Predict the structure.
Amino acid sequence: MERLREDFVATVSHELRTPLSPIKGWASTLLQVGDTLQPEERRAAIQSILRQSQRLERLIVNLLEMSKIEHGILEAADADVDIGAVVHHVVGDFEKTSPDRAFAVHARGSFCARAKELWVEQIVTNLVSNAVKYSRETEPVEVTIDQLDGRIGIAIRDHGCGIPAHELQRVFERFHRVRETTTQTGTGLGLYIARQLAEEMDGGISVESAPGQGSTFVLDLPAVARVVDVRSAREVIGLEAG
Ligand code: ADP
């Protein structure tokens, strides 16, 4: 346990420090010679600051949430959440900081889940962040929303390195990382937290993947039951007339 704790502190310190170097470096460059940079160079500098700040924010939010999970104090009120709006918001943030990557959101109609908006945002952020991290920049990331039997499914698909079969369940364990991917930064917390939060909302997360074939992670949540207007339904089928 002590060894695990020391490793964790070392990983987290490293993860917290890494984004700070480019943030500080670019900010001081902009301060000193910003006027002499070309507009596209300035834009790239600001994008880098934004991207690294978002990375820091994701890590801090995940750490806070993990601490709440460990202490059994997860709480937030259920509400009707517009899933399309949350997904567009999250994907929009990634589009700003990864302008060379193609993102697509597929959703026919509107989708409303009984859930906690901040948690849905955090889960989708963790899953899209992984899709970006574990696939090449030339590969698109697609998010598809649909509804079946009272459940809403949000599928995040990438065309990256994929996950070997024997690791498919282990990736949801706390701190677990697939050895082949440890050249990427990470803490092994994102999927653990995503699954805990999903289950707290009576939802779940599943994955389909194979090495070299990319991965699809699906978050499913309870849909808000649609209220059917009985009178207008009767009119439509002609009962009123009879
Ligand atoms: P982190 O990305 O910080 O390591 P996660 O808990 O989000 O932590 O993921 C755990 C591990 O699962 C990752 O280290 C990686 O090995 C694997 N993984 C997660 N998402 C993907 C993906 N989309 N493609 C390939 N491997 C993935």
User: Anything to note?
Assistant: The chain has a mean pLDDT of 90.
